[in-house]
Amino acid sequence: MVMLRSSVVALAMVVSIAAAEPVRQALSSSETYLAQKAYVALESGRPASALDAYSEAIRRHPESYMSYYRRGVTLAEQGRLEPALADLDAAVRLSPAVQTSNELGLRAWNSLLPETHALHTVILVRSARADILRQLNRPRDAIVDLDAAIALDPQRTALWQKRGLLHLETGNTKAAIADFTALLARRDNPQWRFARGLGHFVNSDLAEAEADFTKAARMDPKNPIYARWLAKTQKKRGIPI
């Protein structure tokens, strides 16, 4: 996993601050002010000042899961993974119970609704902790967070992709193939084809692997990795190249 970059962190701050009016009203004015102050500091390249603002928000509002989340992803951006994980642990522990996207129905498409915003932020917390756990070489724990996030909103393909790759990394090829098969049922994608092909290759299902690598290479002929794995699979099958 790539470490969170400053632009991603800033985007997360915007999403968490720019809530619907009822959500903004629910936040204390001091917490909102400190979150905005931290966002400005991040945009200005002053992460230390942002961390100070988040720490002050936590001191004033120790029950605020979003302040822990914001400080955690900022710490992760600075490479301070252990304290970042501690903050994300607190954010998960303090996160509210939310309705799933299936329970929300059409309301899940309306980001202005407080319940939809709450769902989105809780998923952000889980996904961020999964990223940190992966960087700390704890992929199985990261998968637990992704399981929880996907259960909240099964439509988020990025979560399925993350989990599928982690399943590959941990050697659970059956689960990886299942995740990428579910993704490909929604739409075709060369990266998902290739990832599923790797799972088939490891399982020695070479005909299935060849089919996925062939499709990936046709969809993206400029990617040499797809062609290389196709040739490797065909060679292992004894097919003249």
Strand content: under 5%
**SSE ordering:** HHHHHHHHHHHHHH
Distance between the termini: 34 Å
Major sheet attributes: none
- Say how many strands there are: 0
What is the CATH architecture descriptor of the largest domain? Alpha Horseshoe
Q: Which parts are unreliable, with pLDDT below 50 for 5 consecutive residues or more?
A: 1-27
Determine the CATH superfamily of the largest domain: Tetratricopeptide repeat domain
Compute the number of helices: 14
- Strand pairing plus helix content: what structural class? mainly alpha
Look at the structure and give the CATH class of the largest domain: Mainly Alpha
Shape descriptor reads: elongated
CATH topology annotation of the largest domain = Serine Threonine Protein Phosphatase 5, Tetratricopeptide repeat
Brief description of this entry?
The protein has 14 helices and no strands.
Describe this structure as you would to a colleague.
This protein is mainly alpha-helical and 241 residues long. The protein has 2 domains: 6-155, Alpha Horseshoe (Serine Threonine Protein Phosphatase 5, Tetratricopeptide repeat), CATH 1.25.40; 172-241, Serine Threonine Protein Phosphatase 5, Tetratricopeptide repeat (Alpha Horseshoe). The protein contains 14 helices and no strands. The longest helix has 22 residues, at 114-135. The model is unreliable at 1-27 (pLDDT under 50).
